[in-house]
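README: folding subset

This subset contains proteins for which both the sequence and a predicted structure token string are available. Records are stored as plain text. Below is the entry for 15-oxoprostaglandin 13-reductase (250 residues), shown exactly as it appears on disk.
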Amino acid sequence: MHSYSGSDGEPTKENFRLEETDLTEELADGQVLAQTLYISVDPYLLDPSLVDGHLSYFLGAVGFTGLTAFFGMKEKGHVIPGANQTMVVSGAAGACGSLAGQVSDMEECCPSGVDVYFDNVGGEIRDLVISQMAKNSNILVCGQISQYNTDFAYPPPIPAQTAAILKERNIRREISVVFDYVDHFEMAIEQLGEWVRTGKLKVKETITHGIENTADRTPSMKLLYGGTVAESVKSLLHETIVDQTSKSER
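--- output ---
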């Protein structure tokens, strides 16, 4: 992606450009030649507040997406095992939302009123959910997908009416930052990996092939509008190699 659409602009095909260059295979001492096999395509990458520069499960369920859902639910989700709670996850078909809901299931979250809101989207959905929340309930702000193509600061401001509900019902609203738990990453990755291996954590992906198709068919052009399921991944492997890899993994 070589250009930005500007104020409140959504990415278009014109924002992308494919450039090719020849690289030498001769390496100097201390150099390593690496081939990129997969790249992750996530809504937060469109957040203009992020600075520049900032194998497939490790891009999603057992990567930062999984860690975000894991720590968000276990450390700030206020989900009480055995309690009669209801949790709402906005963007639940997305990469993080699809995992957060499963983590809450494993924490025995039971339906009985909106007590915990895992907010991935913001905007109108956020305001609607907050209007239905119980007193002394909790909101975990994980993302604000609906606002990433705007010039609002993160997190964006909430309407006065919604803010009044938060105050009146004593609703706690916290921002989850996965890097606050760096010291616990190894433990969390082991737990997520175990859940994946045992089938407790169901992993889905939307995979597209070829960097040359980025502007035409990339999940990044669809994931803000429900056009993808779970983690969106761009495969840079040739189709035949992908098939061989899939067979070996099975």
